[in-house]
Amino acid sequence: MNLLFEHIRIVHPAQGLDGRYFLWLRDGRIEALSVEPIEGDSHTHRIPAEELVAVPGLFDLHVHARDPGQTHKEDLDSVTAAAANGGFTGICCMPNTEPALDRPELLAYVRERTRTAPVEVHCCAALTRGRRGEELAPLLELYAAGARMFSDDGTWLASAELLRRAFRYLEGTDALIAQHCQEPTLTVDFAINEGILSTRLGLKGYPAVAEEIAIARDLLLASACGNPRYHVQHISTRGAVELIRIAKQRGLRVSCEVTPHHLVLTEEAVAEFDTNAKMNPPLRTQADVEALREALAEGTIDCIATDHAPHALHEKLQEFSQAPLGVIGLETALGVVLTKLVHTGIITLERLVEAMAIAPRQLLGLPIPRIEPGAEANLTIFAPDEEWRVEPERFRSKARNTPFAGWELRGKPRWTIYRQHLWESSL
Questions:
Q1: Domain count, the chain
Q2: CB 25, CB 36: distance < 8 Å
Q3: Among 188, 235, 245, 283, which has the minimal tally of Cβ within 10 Å of its Cβ?
Q4: Between the CA atoms of 101, 104, 105 and 106, what dihedral angle is there, to the nearest 10 degrees?
């Protein structure tokens, strides 16, 4: 795999790079990087790259691999292929598998199964045994086994005492405790956002305050526990944004993520009972979307994560109230963010790289890929102006539950390069 990209734009905010370069990759490493032409050698394939951009490999902090236990939805082979196909070179798998990722041997299973995968794979371990919220998982053993983030993702740890113990047990480590913030008594059997639309459709709603109550409780507890690292998953409301903003201003070590679908879709996407737009947290109002966009642009929201949640076709074909929650996103995230946020001027390309490549790794304490001679190649290469249509049959995921099917996007992943894997996107 020897490649010479000629006149490619390289964007890497952490290195202060934004310009046109000749980029020579040889045997999985960056052989040379220069503003002047590079001769290369007879074993190198030259690629005219005036229409391409190279950035440090994208990393998705929130992926449901469904393996072990639900491999009819997705498995580690298909999820890593989907990630590479969508332009990612790294992912973090959530623990809501069957069994939950609450023991070191299960982390070892994921590590061994993905040893030769085309992307880097990390695990978020369960915060409590079986994700049941009753007893803490062996946090320090899981940390020693490689876990750097802990969550009962999909379930908020409602016990303040257990969360306080978790903060204390992980003192002295760089571990990140993450919460899916959803106060459960306010959201029983919900289907969509609570509001005028839920009333009109006759569906049980999930009020914004249910998310905000959970965040507020956790922030107060973190403040009382010596200011540990704390992360809010997939925020979706104006109130959540304001709570995070205030917490950061007060010096709390809080971070958060947002999904592409919460940045571009509103609750109106479910007005025709489209189960592919049914998710948790639900799509909110236009005012919420605007608040999320502003917070992402200014840095209050740290990163973009897909919350890739695959389901089998027959599961999503059920009646709306019965269909499972969740949408996939690995293969549409880059195109959606470029189209709806970068090309519209809401965020810059540099901010995209920070939110989709740099910040996710920083939150897990992982090294940021370097684009410089001698470094291992860990790159996402995309065509920012190439137009394409989202056709789920081209996905490498097993699942097809995307709300973006048929969308015309501008900005397409072309290659990912990681561990000498060169992946050409089929989208």
A1: 2
A2: no
A3: 188
A4: 20
Which residue among 364, 381, 398 closes a domain?
364
Q: What is the pLDDT of residue 361?
A: 98
Q: Rounded distance, CA 396 to CA 308, Å?
A: 13
Q: Do 339 and 392 lie in a common domain? A: no
Among 364, 387, 411, the domain boundary falls at 364
> Which CATH number do you get for residue 405?
2.30.40.10
Query: What integer pLDDT is reported at residue 276 of this predicted model?
Result: 98
pLDDT at position 142: 98
Q: What angle do helix axes 160-169 and 208-224 make, rounded to 10 degrees?
A: 50
Structure-token pair, residue 275:
């189960």
Question: Does 123 share its domain with 247?
Answer: yes
- Catalytic residue list contains 174: no
The CATH number given to whatever domain includes residue 148 is 3.20.20.140
Domain span at residue 271 reads 57-364
In whole angstroms, what is the distance from residue 232 CA to residue 293 CA?
A: 16
Burial (Cβ within 10 Å: 0-12, 13-18, ≥19) of residue 246: middle
The pLDDT tens digits of the residues spanning 244-256 come to 999 999 999 999 9
Q: How is residue 90 written in tokens? A: 């790294």
Same domain, 306 and 358: yes
Identify whether residues 109 and 185 lie together within a single domain: yes
Q: What's the Cα-to-Cα distance from 119 to each of 13, 27, 77, 318, rounded to whole Å?
A: 22, 17, 10, 33
**pLDDT tens track for 50-78:** 999 999 999 999 999 999 999 999 999 99
For residues 97 and 163, membership in a common domain is answered with: yes
* Three-state secondary-structure class, residue 131: helix
Closest CA relative to residue 193, chosen from 276, 272, 281, 258? 281
Task: Tell me which of 152, 189, 307, 385 is the catalytic residue.
Answer: 307
Residues 275, 207, single domain; the answer is yes
Cis amide leading into 413 (omega within 30): no
Taking 70 as the pLDDT cut, the residues of the chain under it are none
Give residue for tokens 């005036």.
Answer: 50
Query: Distance between CA atoms of 237 and 283, rounded to whole angstroms?
Result: 9
What lies within 8 Å, CB to CB, of 127 at 6+ separation is 136, 137, 139, 150, 151, 152, 157, 166, 177
